[in-house]
Amino acid sequence: MAAASHPRAQQYATRAAFFIPGFAAAIWAVLVPYAKARTGVDDGTLGLILLCLGAGSLTAMPVAGALAARFGSRRVMVATTAIICISLPLLAVAPNAWLLGACLLLFGAGMGAMDCVMNMQAVVVERESGRAMMSGFHAFFSIGGFVGAALMTALLSAHAGPLAVCLAGSAAMVLLAAMAAAYWRGETLQQDGPMIAWPKGVVLFLGVLAFIVFLAEGAMLDWSAVFLADVRDVTPSMAGLGYGVFALTMTVTRLFGDAVVERLGRMRAIVVGALLAAVGFGVLTWVTPWQASLLGYVLLGLGCANIVPALFSLAGNQTRMPEAVAVTAVTTLGYSGVLAGPALIGFAAHGVGLVGAFMGVAGLLVGVAVSVRWLRV
């Protein structure tokens, strides 16, 4: 029987699709020190190798969107899950920098393709449900990250080797995909024009807003610990607390975010979220002592949680461009913010300091809130 006739099962299967790349990303994050030691590279070389992950993701996203429109989301998500599960153990054994970079390029392609197509699937499932669901779907990416990091850390602490850990992780993802795949969308999209196109009009507008919000999230991922350590003189062992508070708050908020979006509406949810996040940057940069400034990370998590899911929903429901092209474009532009954002923050911090760079991001978030008045979907 068609997957569309099982709406509840489809919703669970979509959550599983979001869980898988979050789980895989966490496994790789745990493996990075092992990969660095095994290949013998220095920090600078490792940074260049890590760029392969982003390059693979950004290259695969538009291709995956086009393939999903032609062959259906199910086939592409099954294929990308296979790529992730095959490449992950290779990351655990790659003996030198060149092979590690090649494996990361493949892994990144699988991750980027899955990120794109799972959002296409989520847009359709949400629309057919008649209620907001996107925040809850995105929460499961974060939950996958928490579960993956905890499980892999436990296995490594029990003296399991990196390869065994990756094989266990891949087996878990294969099992989850096998249970969910029957309820992933299988229909193709019939549309005129190219499957890949440069975004225009409202789609470009949504993509730019997504870039800014993802930039803010990337700032937290890569610079929050540096800020606490260098600016607030927090010990390195405690410096990760800021990002932990941010990530936990965002995950919990997304679990309950659909009800908030239903009550406020997507446009107002974007405005409120962007302003909360901007205030969060202000609090974490100007409030002392550092323990009190953790409220800023809470506000950032609350603010950022529902903006990106709302933007994806809007991209899927606009009529300026075909749905597959629009969701692919917003995904690609948005994730570019995660990849380029930390570097942009670094350049800005070199000129005006990290506090000034963070306040610059706060200004961009205020711009997101103000610009919504011109957003017409």
Helicity, in percent? over 70%
Unreliable segments (pLDDT under 50, ≥5 consecutive)?
Answer: none
**What are the secondary-structure elements, in order, as H or E?**
HHHHHHHHHHHHH
Integer tally of domains: 2
Binned strand content: under 5%
* Spatial gap, N to C terminus: 34 Å
Please state the structural category. Answer: mainly alpha
Q: What is the overall pLDDT average?
A: 86
**Which architecture of the largest domain per CATH?**
Up-down Bundle
Please provide the count of β strands: 0
CATH-defined fold name of the largest domain: Growth Hormone, Chain: A
Overall 3D shape: globular
Radius of gyration: 20 Å
CATH superfamily of the largest domain: MFS general substrate transporter like domains
CATH class term of the largest domain: Mainly Alpha
Characterize the main sheet: none
Query: How many helices in DSSP terms?
Result: 13
Description:
- The chain has helices at residues 7-39, 43-71, 73-93, 97-129, 134-157, 162-180, 202-230, 236-239, 241-264, 266-286, 290-305, 307-317, 323-371.
- By secondary structure, the protein is mostly helical.
- The relative contact order is 0.14.
